[in-house]
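Long-time lurker, finally posting.

We've been working with UDP-N-acetylenolpyruvoylglucosamine reductase (Fructobacillus ficulneus) and I want a structural starting point before designing mutants. I don't trust myself to interpret raw outputs, so I'm hoping someone here can both generate the structure tokens and explain anything notable. Sequence follows.
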Amino acid sequence: MEKAPLQIKEQQAIAPYAYTQAGGVADYLAIPQTLTELTDLLAWAKDQDLPVHIFGRLSNLVVRSGGLRGLVILTTDLKDIRQDGLKLTAQAGCDIIWLAAVAQEKGLAGLEWSAGIPGTVGGAVFMNAGAYGGQADMVVTEVKAVMPDLTLQTFAQDDLAFAYRHSVFQDNGGVIVEVTFALTEGNQADIRAKMDEINYARANKQPLSWPSNGSVFKRPTGHFAGKLIMDAGLQGTRVGGVEVSKKHAGFMVNLAQGTGNDYEDLIHLVQEKVFEAYQVELEPEVRILGDR
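Top reply, 14 upvotes:
Generated this for you. Predicted structure of UDP-N-acetylenolpyruvoylglucosamine reductase:
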């Protein structure tokens, strides 16, 4: 095998990087500092015929205890932001919370909904993240991505195939590297007040003091996942170290060194019990990856 680039670490635990604080070992893991390094890593993995997994903060993800084969790339050091009038362009690893704060400082409105989302710009676009009445597809106008053939391709808004918790990048293998957001002129104080209101609501409703992967299930048609789980009496249900939050039934929290397998098993248990009670199928919003 051709020698790996210097920044690659072998047999690296994923848990320390994940919001769940769970997950097995990656064969290889790298955190590129530049877009050139990212492309070089992709080229190396392609040459070695290795699968590649691209993550930001791993905040909407369960990695099974058996870990991930191939190369894991974390984009978190790719976080530059630039402004062009009412537009902000951010690299994929930029925290969406930080981008919202920058927008507020510049008097740009449209990202208030993302003020408390613990993920990156790339992840927000990949999953078409949303909260509190806002969503990525409402403000994203252009995305640049490195495609499987290693070419850099620009996607206009109409090319992104946005849907509920979906984008074209879940289907085409493209690696998001840069995103442009079209915002509107606003008042700094009003924007800050809205962000504070959202963060206050989060702190009151969500179990932010424990590791979790955010809202676990997509919203089923005609229902709310959290209410179904609560009404089924599942709050406090536990598998290993992972529990259905007593504060918000839509969350699962890592209370005692829970594993990726604990998360997955608890997800399946909740799906089974909710279907038994209400004949509603809960579909995970979080991605579940890796070997058991």
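Before you design anything, note these points.
The helical segments are 35-47, 96-105, 121-126, 169-172, 188-205, 225-231, 260-278.
The chain has three domains: 9-74, 81-205, 207-280.
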